[in-house]
Amino acid sequence: MDLKTYKKIHPVKYYRDYLEHNIRPDGREIADLRPLAINFGSIHSADGSAIVKIGNTTVVCGIKAELAPPKALEPEMGFLVPNIEISPLASPKYRPGPPSEEAQVYSCSLADSILNSGCVNLKDLCISKEKLVWALFCDLVCLDHDGCVFDASVIALVAALHTLKLPQIKYNPDTDEREILEDEERIPLKVSSIPVTTSFAVFNGQIIADPTAEEESLATSTITISICDSTLSYIQKSGGDPLEQNLLDQCIENAMKREKSVRALVKKLTKNSNKTC
Prior knowledge:
Low-confidence stretches: none
Structural class: alpha+beta
Number of strands: 14
Helix content: 25-40%
Strand content: 25-35%
Radius of gyration: 21 Å
Largest sheet: 6 strands, mixed
Number of helices: 6
Distance between the termini: 59 Å
């Protein structure tokens, strides 16, 4: 029996054979993270944008800023509205049509992750109390799904927010007259923190860092850890048995390493971007 046929018939055993030697089919050890790349300002028609690659997983984020009235209960706060779409091109398991349930869950979790971390203060989006605010519509599209789409989406949105510049507005609250001052210099959005999430999969009692799509499909449970400014933000676990504390500590340590590297990369790209403006 050739290797491809063996993998197709016995996918779990095929994978377990690799793990017995502390290695995965893609050559990584179980705690290794895939290479990560970030590109700023990828979409010129957007007010802010970025592309993120984690291994083969690719997510592009574009932000459009629009004027809108605030909510009655939050008269001084603007809006941050993320929406994740997993394109049929990303994986054969997705079909054209309405957003999948997975994408909808990711969109809600993404908004919570950004706002709960204090990354953006929605009050900074207020132009005139009770009258006018900025609404940031953040569209994220997964172009290639090879695991950890949520992790890539968080980084892509944070990176895009670092490139966002809002136009200056001349606004009369009495007459509701507004004018976008196109000739004036745009104002960068204040980004106060850089939340980073790292996902892990549990397979055969072992913790696998930064799983691929294939590894996610074979896992008995998944763990997502969010780190913000070197501080543990939250832990989310789905499925499987309770996790031993020593294994959880290993996951947190690994997530800390990714957060540190991502934070340094985003700050470096932001600094270089400001120099070229």
